[in-house]
Amino acid sequence: MNNINRRDFVKMMGAAGAATTGALLLPFEAYAGASGHVVVVGGGTGGATCANYLTRWAPNAKVTLIEKDSKYSTCFFSNEVIMGMATMDSITYGYDGLKKRGVNVVHDTVTGIDTGGKKVITGSGSISYDILVLSPGITFDHSTVDGSSDAVAEQMPHAWKAGPQTSLLAKQIAGMRQGGLLIIAPPENPFRCPPGPYERAALALAHFKEHNPTAQVVILDAKEKHSKQGAFREGWTRVYGGEATAEGNFEGPNLKWIKGSNGGKVVEVNGATNTVITEDGEEHKGDVVNYIPKQVAGAICKDAGLVNATGWCDVDLDFKSKVCDIVFVIGDASVASPMPKSGHSASSQAKNVAATIAAQMAGEEAPPWTGSNTCYSFISEKYGISVVAIYAVKDGKRVKVKGAGGVAFKGKSLRHHAKEAKYARGWYKGITSDMFG
How much is the pTM? Predict the structure, then answer.
């Protein structure tokens, strides 16, 4: 694996839509002896992918997926929807493909988990399981910023769960006055899709360049640096102009990024006035405010007693909960460092867990764990950047494999970045196919 250079790896995985293969050492044959009932809670990237692959690798087991909604919209590629470059339909999927693969899809609300009795409690009853997989995604923690609430999100949409919030932010941006101000306020780490706010800013610049050329974007960041910072800064500079300042911020003709210690950390929000107040006492009023709250594991994890003091779920190397070893937790809800909270990470974890469960039910040894992350971001509709990483287990720890990945930027031609955008769309096709069959 170490002998694969990054260029060939990205080309192979992105263009073919195979970036979602996740773990390169997963089984190619089914475990015919696998039997039992696996219940998967959460029909997003991790849950849907896990259910899909369980039907492949444990064809004689019963697989039930519980998801309250009949349609699912992906967070990845939702920034294009927000900026009017794609439609909600293009990122929205149903579960018929999984049903055809043999997954028992139950649309219901999970209200509790009885780990002792091996039951998932739903709005209409209960479902027993032999093995449980939780992939509930995130919920928002409003405790660290004054004024933050779910109600405020109706004035200052976070759009960090795709669906109505995506449409609301898209409507607000489309209706901005000429020369208006879009404020994007990302939280501290960890949070879902670390590069997302900065891609959103880039695509906002692309949208404004065509429809509102004097509009401004200001990123008020709680952090001192951000995901893919070098790649984004080079992209912002080359496509829209600007440069890093002596204070460590970034400033361009239509974009400012302000780090936390320079007045970027938001400590109070007011949805009624569309203002945010930063730690230095400065008040910022936007025409549109994209305030993204702090995040923790989906609420069902806390209700089941599976979260740590920070609100996330500690897991072993095989993603079994450290609290309950017949429960696996995958995706954004898990503490999977050094893997980021990304769609690709969730897909990779899902396949590993599906293989582990199939082997376990068949009484066989699980394949070696090895995961991956491929994360594409758009600088504009035409140009993309990416990061690739491979992970393995070494000395009892999950580690990034040296020399097996990297970030695409620094002196690459725009032709190269145009290819990255093409690979990104291939990646999207692959990962959604893995999710929904």
Answer: 0.93
